[in-house]
Amino acid sequence: MIQLSRWKITLVALSLVLGLFLAYPSVLSPAQREALPSWLPSNGLNLGLDLQGGSYLLLEVDVPEMREKRVSNLMEDVRVSLREDQVNILGMQREAGGVVVTVAEGAAYDTAFNTLRTMAQQGAGATGQPDRVATKLGGGRLRYAFTDVALNSMGATAVDQSIEVVRRRLDSSGTKEIAITRQGADRIVVQAPGQSDPAELERLVGRTAQLTFQMVDTSPTGLNDALAGRVPPDAELLTDDQGTPYLVKRRILVSGENLTRAGIGTDQNQRPAIDFQFDGQGARRFAEATAQNLGKPFAIILDGKVISAPTIQSAITGGSGQITGSFTIASASELVNLLNGGALPAPLNVEERRVVTAELGADAVAAGALSTALGFVVIVVFMIVAYGFLFGGISVLGLILNGILIVAAMSLTQATLTLPGIAGLILTFAVAVDANVLIYERMRDEARQGRSVIASMDAGFNRAMGTIVDANLTTLVAALIMFMFGAGPVRGFAWTLTIGVFTSVFSSVLVAQVLLGYWLKVAKPKKLPIAE
Fold first, then answer.
1. What's the burial of 57, exposed, middle or buried (CB within 10 Å: 0-12/13-18/19+)?
2. Which residue has the higher pLDDT, 491 or 295?
3. Are strands 305-308 and 235-240 parallel, antiparallel or unpaired?
4. Each residue's pLDDT tens digit, 361-408
5. Where are the transmembrane segments (predicted)?
6. Beta strands in 208-347 (DSSP E)
7. Helix (H, G, I), strand (E, B), or coil: what is residue 424?
8. Is-contact 264 332, C-beta < 8 A?
């Protein structure tokens, strides 16, 4: 193993060059990195919230509100479907997970049950099984409700979807290295390094961005009755940004869930507008709705506010359209970002917000740099005192390459360096030196038993490798467990440690082999220096 192989020399040289190439931007300022040519890497180390400062938000997913809305939509589906089948509804009572409908006994009862059963079979949950069920209660009463499995899974699904929506919104806005993690059953932690205004972050993250298309109630006295407090059960009273009231049907024709793309366009007056495209299902439903309601207005609603209420002139069959209104370029761009990021399945309530100042981050960086430097110096002194300038110096050179490779790997993967990550970096140095100590001590033992220099060095690498692999494999398993089940700084520590396991084995073993092999070839020693 101590042979001076050409491939080992090439691999060490390439790793050094590539490491310096990728790590170099980390020593530059942001302005200097931006000025680099496009063909050069420009990604430096990303500092976490505890090092760089930034904003922290603790959000709670309003699962009860989401369930309330789902049940409301379910009631409107029942009302419209039974009306289309000409079933007269005598009564409708809302339940926690659904609705109880009362109809006349006889044929109407059977027709209503068949309608509800068909609706239940068409609705599929996340598992592919129906998430709603229709049951007969007798006495003309029918129950149509979400299954217990569907109700229980709504919370977990809403949190997972909210995390993905928040991540898409922040990534598409150009914000980098936002840490978004789940906390408990229904909470989300958002850590935004470099963001000094949590209110702006909250505004961007907290908008539900629920886009719906609903028909406007055009009955002669409908709006006046609603303004007088007599809102029909199948409608709701909404306003636009100017305060103009609209009475709209509760049934949602098409929602933002069917959007495949949103972009900035211009209307006929060259003012900013929102162009949109539906998926196949949305295009079909939109075409049917516009064909059945020619000459009637429909409302485009975003988060409970009417954006516009155009009149349907003809059936819109292409699956695309345009939303016009009093948009500016900035507001249109933000709305496009929100729509492309997706709608939040439930409102997010801010439970806690705080700002970590840059001064605190600077103190943490200084403390981390000092502790890393002290740890490195202690290791250097120990290795030189214990094994001399030759063997100890080779270990130090391996450590330097190890540090370069870690910075390069974290810059390449854009991993975030946190204060616990610095602790992982220091631990990595210790693990790397531990491998050299095992190798050198094995060489020393072999030399003391009278074996030659070459045999002692070869045995040192061969017989120590098993222990080195076992020790690093144990560390790697622990790091992977922390990365999978940890959050925030714990994952940062685990990621730094994981990278360090691979780079430390490479630098402590392969670099030592190449440099000692070169020394052996040039010096041709008769005695191992560390055998004394």
1. buried
2. 295
3. parallel
4. 667 677 777 887 888 888 889 888 888 888 888 888 888 888 888 888
5. 364-387, 394-413, 419-440, 461-487, 493-520
6. 211-215, 235-240, 245-249, 254-255, 259-266, 272-278, 298-302, 305-308, 320-323
7. helix
8. yes
Cβ–Cβ < 8 Å for 270, 293: no
If DSSP codes are grouped into helix, strand and coil, which group holds residue 306?
strand
Question: Among residues 184, 208, 299, which one has the least CA distance to residue 245?
Answer: 299
pLDDT band at 175 (very low <50, low <70, confident <90, very high): very low
Cβ contacts of 51 within 8 Å, gap of 6 or more: 193, 361, 364, 365, 368, 417, 418, 419
Is pLDDT of 436 > 50? Answer: yes
Compute the distance between CA of residue 478 and CA of residue 502 in angstroms, rounded to an integer: 14
Partners of 522 in the β-ladder = none
DSSP classification of residue 185: T
Question: Are the beta carbons of 440 and 394 closer than 8 angstroms?
Answer: no
CA 263 to CA 275: how far, in whole Å?
Answer: 5
For the four alpha carbons of 524, 529, 530 and 531, in that order, the dihedral sign comes to positive
Structure tokens that stand for 463 in this block = 């017989």
266 bridge partner residues? 272
d(CA 399, CA 512): 11
Q: What is the separation of C-alpha 92 from the centre of its chain, rounded to a whole number of angstroms? A: 41
Residue for token digits 């809305």? Answer: 69
Burial of 14 (0-12, 13-18, 19+ CB in 10 A): exposed
Sequence-separated (6 or more) residues with CB below 8 Å from residue 229: none
Is the distance from CB of 346 to CB of 66 less than 8 angstroms? Answer: yes
The answer on pLDDT for 26 being more than 60 is yes
Number of alpha carbons in the 13 Å side-chain half-sphere of residue 51: 20
Give CA–CA dist 339/333, Å, rounded.
10
Residue 187's SS3 state is strand
With bands split at pLDDT 50, 70 and 90, how would you rate the model's confidence at 173? Answer: very low
Distance, in Å, from the CA atom of 462 to the CA atom of 53, rounded to the nearest integer, reads 47
Query: 271 and 261 in contact (C-beta within 8 Å)?
Result: no
pLDDT of residue 3: 63
Mean pLDDT value across residues 165-176:
63
Phi, psi of 246 (to 5 degrees): -135, 135
For 15, 51, 111, 431, 464, the CA distances from 400, given in Å and listed in that order, are: 12, 23, 79, 14, 22
Q: Which residues pair with 193 in a beta bridge?
A: 54
Tokens of 379: 């290791």
Residue 87 and residue 111 in contact, taking contact as beta carbons nearer than 8 Å: yes
Q: Which residue has the tokens 């030592």?
A: 512
Q: Which residues contact 485 (CB under 8 A, 6 or more apart)?
A: none
Question: Higher model confidence: residue 201 or residue 387?
Answer: 387
Q: In what order do the strands lie in the sheet with 272-278?
A: 259-266, 272-278, 320-323
- As a whole number of angstroms, the distance between CA 175 and CA 178 comes to 7
The continuous run of DSSP H or E covering 78 comes out as helix 63-84
